Structures are given as C-alpha cells and as structure tokens.
Amino acid sequence: MTANASAAREGLPIRDELRGQTPYGAPQLDVPVLLNTNENPYPLPEALVARIAERVAVAARELNRYPDRDAVELRTELAAYLSRTAGHTVGVRQVWAANGSNEIIQQLLQTFGGPGRTAIGFEPSYSMHALISRGTGTGWLSGARGEDFTIDLAAATRQIAERAPHVVFICSPNNPTGTAVAAETVVALYDAAMAAGPSMVVVDEAYGEFSHRPSLLPLIQGRPRLVLTRTMSKAFGAAGLRLGYLAADPAVVDAVQLVRLPYHLSSVTQATALAALEHTDTLLGYVRQLKDERDRLVAELTAIGYEVTPSDANFVQFGRFADSHAAWQAILDRGVLIRDNGVPGRLRVSAGTPAENDAFLDAARTVFKEHSTASDPTGPARTEPTRTEESA
Ligand SMILES: Cc1ncc(COP(=O)(O)O)c(C=O)c1O
After folding, report:
1. Which ligand 1 atom is at minimum distance from the Cα of 174?
2. Is the shortest distance between the CB of 171 and ligand 1 below 6 Å?
3. Fewer CB within 10 A of the terminal residue: the chain, N end or C end?
4. Cα 207 to middle of ligand 1, angstroms
5. Do 286 and 176 lie in a common domain?
C-alpha cells in the first residue's frame, strides 16, 4: 500500500477508530530465502496435490449449488484429527471452521466483542488480535509480558480483574516470541476472567503442533467459555488454502452462527481441506522435521552468541540488536527475508528447509559482529517489550 493510497483513504468517511491505522502487511519481497511469515517451507506432496485435484473436480461439478453451509463433513474430520492428536475427544458439534483462523477470530469478536466491549492480549503477541478487535469495534487492552516474554500471571490477573475484558486472548505458542503458556496459567487466567465478568477466553494455538508441550485442548472440558483456535496454514503447510477452526462447547459453535456469512466456506475450500486431512500423517512428518530444524536454529544462534527466546513454534525470536531494523536489512541484503515485528532489539526467523536455514545462519553469523549487542554486557540498556507492530 503506497503513502498516496493511505492519504486518499483518509479522505473517505471511514470510521473514527480506523483513522490513522496501518493495515496488516508483512513485506512480500522477491528474494531467494523467505523466512518471514511462519509458513511451512515444504510444498504439499504430489500424492496430496493429485487427491486435491480429484476432490476439487467432484466439487466443481456442483459449483452451480451453494456449498454445505455447515461444513459437516469437514468439521467431522477436523474433530477426528483433534481427537486423535490433541489429547481430548471432541465431536462435530464442538468444532467450527472458517477461512483461516483470522476469520475464526473475527467471528468470535463479532459475537462476543463489539462496540462498548473490550478484548485483552498479552503483548508482544499476534498483532491481528488487536487489529481484528479494532475492526469489529472492540476496544483493545494491551496486557504486558515479563522480561522473559512469559505472561506475568500476577499482573495479568490484576488487569483482568480491574478491566473485566469481554474477550481474553492467550496465544500459545505465542507469535512472535515462540513462548508456550502452561496449562495452569491458562486455567488461572480463565478463572480470573470468569470472576471479573461475562467473558470468553480464546487460546490461539495456531502453532500448537510444533510445541514441546501437549495441546491445551483438554482444558475446554468443563470450561464452557474457553475456545481453542487452530489453523491448517502452518502444520498442514496449507497457508494458501485459508482454513482455520475452533474447538469449544457446542453453545459457542451455535453462537458464532449469528455472525458467520451464509455459505462462507466454499465447496473448493472444503474439498481441499478434506483432501489434506486424508494426508495428515505425511504432513505431520514435515512438522517433525521442522521441529528439529527449529531446535537447530535455537542451538546455532545461541552458539553464535545471540540471545534466543526458547521456542515452541516453527520460528525463533533472537537478538539483541541496538537497531533491529538495520540488522533485518543487513540479513535481507544477504538474500534472506526474516521478520522485524517491532519488538525492541529482536528479530524473528521462521524455520525453513535445512538449506534455507543454513543460508540464514550464514547471514546471521556475518551480521552478528556489527549489529548484535547480545554478548556485550555494556550494550544498550534493555528496552521493555512494547506492543508488537506486525506479527504474522
Ligand atoms: C498466532 C496466530 N494466529 C492466527 C494466525 C492466522 O492464521 P490463518 O492463516 O489461519 O488465518 C496466525 C498467522 O500467522 C498466527 O500467527
């Protein structure tokens, strides 16, 4: 989006709370190594591509009809996937699907947030929680994290008690830091939210499959206001598909029907997602490789001398840098695009293929001397993490 376009936009009678805001926008640059948006670097296997073609061909013969509005077959298979891999059995009535987990988040905010209501997230975290809140007229409250990027439970429960937000976002593993949230912390935040007022707690587990810890899905049992969100964009290597889903009490699934657009999930999307779910075991094999590569990135960045935030996701946050944007540019100049999320002194790299990670590590080694302050005890004073500018 150009400066001219945003100036022109400001001339329109857009809603006050959207004025001066910046749209989401991770740079999409044409460079040899792309490690900036936490995508899965492995293209779908050929057998799956062929199966998608078959399933889409069947769907195409009925494109004159609207798709299954309730996506029952897809939700049944998503429920089976969760039941098999996430430590808790869920049924079709507990699962809902939409175009990416961003749309799931939007539906949740349209249902439970909105004008006169607030949502809270513990930042730095996924910037779209705040952006979609604003887009739905929901007030945004920025909760803080501690020095080590974990949620400071005492501060968080105090904020929830004082502000009584209507929606509480807990991102685990957290984007952009990679930090997993302990089940006990989620339970404590849930209890605080229930005590504070009518509230929903949303656990964003977009990177759940990459975690060292078990899924937080079992926590929905007996907690009717806890929602777990997932996506096929990361572990399933299908960011282009746009398929996200939630698991929660059936009443939550019923509630989001009030705001979902009719026939929101196209027949083509449903057919493609069903084909991908048939190949779950192969795709989870790539996840295992990516977890190994993530652990290698952590080990090698640490060996170089960087300060590395422990990661449960398919990306790694590292620093510190006196000027993280200059370090980002220096790495880009070596043909590797990573992410500057606006976390002071830190950058984030997505785990790629071994060859992509080697290219990144070479660049990271080269820029270390000039840009990093990690091993320099007299380096610039630590700045507290602030609100994330961009985080996808
Ligand atoms: C924490 C988190 N949640 C949700 C999403 C959105 O994913 P989707 O592609 O399913 O909309 C992302 C994407 O980067 C993410 O990082």
Report:
1. 1
2. yes
3. N
4. 8
5. no
Please indicate, yes or no, if residue 174 is contained in any of the structural domains: yes
269 and 235 housed in the same domain: yes
First to last CA, the chain: 17
Task: Take atom 13 of ligand 1 and give the residue whose Cα is closest.
Answer: 392
Tens digits of per-residue pLDDT, 124-157? Answer: 999 999 999 999 999 999 998 999 999 999 999 9
Please state the pTM of the whole predicted model: 0.93
211 in contact with ligand 1, CB cutoff 6 A: no
CB within 8 Å of 57: residues ≥ 6 apart = none
User: How far, in Å, is the centroid of ligand 1 from the Cα of 105?
Assistant: 9
304 and 270 within one domain: no
Q: Which two tokens stand for residue 391?
A: 């985080």
> What is the domain range of residue 358?
3-45+282-371
**Structural domain contains residue 51:** no
- Kindly list the distances between the CA atom of residue 224 and the CA atoms of 34, 190, 221, 228, 351, in Å, as whole numbers in the listed order: 40, 11, 8, 11, 35
Segments of the chain assigned E as strands? 33-34, 95-98, 118-123, 139-144, 167-171, 200-204, 226-231, 244-247, 307-308, 315-319, 336-337, 346-350
pLDDT tens digits, one per residue of 35-59:
999 999 999 999 999 999 999 999 9
**What are the tens digits of pLDDT across the range 203-244?**
999 999 999 999 999 999 999 999 999 999 999 999 999 999
Q: Is residue 265 part of a domain?
A: yes
Q: Is the CB of 206 under 6 A from ligand 1?
A: yes
